[in-house]
Design a protein that fits this description.
This protein is mainly beta and 466 residues long. It is built from four helices and 24 strands. The strands form four sheets. The protein has a 14-stranded antiparallel β-barrel with strand order 3-4-5-6-7-8-9-14-15-18-19-22-23-24. β7 and β8 form a beta hairpin. The longest helix is centred in the first third of the chain and has 25 residues. The radius of gyration is 24 Å and the shape is elongated. The N terminus is likely disordered.
Amino acid sequence: MKHYSSYNQPGKSSLLTSSTFLTLDHLQAYLHGSRLIGKFTSLVSLAMLFSVSGAFAQGGTVSPYSQYGLGEMAQRGGGLNQGMNGLGIGIHRSYLVNPLNPASYAQVDSLTMLFDVGMSGQITSYNDHGKKDRTKTANFEYVLANFRISNYLGASFGVLPLTNVGYSFSTTEHLDEQNTVVTTYAGDGGIHQVFVGVGARPVKPLSVGVNLGYIWGGYERGVVANSGSAVNSLAKIYSADVNSYTLDLGVQYDHPLGKDKTLTLGLTYGLGHKLGADAECRAISSNASISKNDTTLMTLKDALELPHTIGAGVSLTHGEKWLVGADVQAQFWNKTKYPSYENGEYALRSDLLDNSYKFTLGGEYCPRWNARNIFQRIHYRFGAGYTTPYYKINGQDGPRQFSATIGFGIPIANTYISRTSLFFPFVNISAQYINNYASGMIKEHAFRINIGITFNERWFAKWKVE
């Protein structure tokens, strides 16, 4: 399977844009129609479980790097996490949802029902050896809820993206002065998760939690190579449909450090397992002069899997005034096999994926949450992160990611909730810069805006009527 090494070879040029080649249009139409059928079936089966999962689980990407592995790893978490660049393993707030560590659910306020919904818009710029392009995307990102079941026991449910696949581009290889080969690439899909979770505090400083999720989705990827005369072509269509589960465990421990200061330590573990998904490859050879197509279908049983994941986080808080923290997370992909077509054979290979590590720093500051001045009540957030890739490209590590975020949690007082109460609805806004870079490969620079609303409904308050 040809990938980005083709951009570095002499005599070749590339164009990262929506191609005018008819073969790419056909390929995109095929992939889009195929994915629609699969998505429709999945959404019908999920409708009784969570009616909005179809609307809010459709994350997206336009990155050519999403053609590797299970796709581009989605940015997870609610408005609180996104404002701090994904920080959350060692954090809990009683008035905001944090799905990154289920132990945090035990800290939810006893009188409220929290809903958090969010969307994003992104502008991405590409640079491939001087050839530039820019794309725009907008997506619904998540729906989250958190509420108290009983003393020291909270619950959550929601929909989050897991991976995203989406790209289309073409390369041109000049064999000689008269012959060229145009190769077009297109892909679509992704894996999404609907989950339920509980968090409990068996003893005052210790919280434990678990998320159990159902994941669905898959991918369709295609590669079509045409000679300059467009008489002969060779296409390879890769596909897989996923219906499986996820299990994530979390622990948080609070240690007081004096008046209003608390040190919180957090640990998470995500179960790695086979997804029970078959991977298919259709190799299609066509000759337009004789109107003949030869198709070979190859199938690998139970070919996809998720890695074991561990994470650790620490945060220091001073009441509701400020918070600073750090997370580290490791995904162990190096023992995970992945399907690949090479030299006419479709087989599982163990050298395509590698362990991925993510490091995050972040925090928030609120001058005075009950002040009259709106600017003093805003929660100012910041974060930065570094992530290593989990896939290899022609034996070389993929791009490393650097990211930085600034965000704002803007409280909204209303008739029932005045500025003297901490439990406001929040508008969460964050701006994120993302840089994917590897020597000799396509450079990606993205500017992303996340907008979310946290509804803080006092469902469980007892109203006094005089």
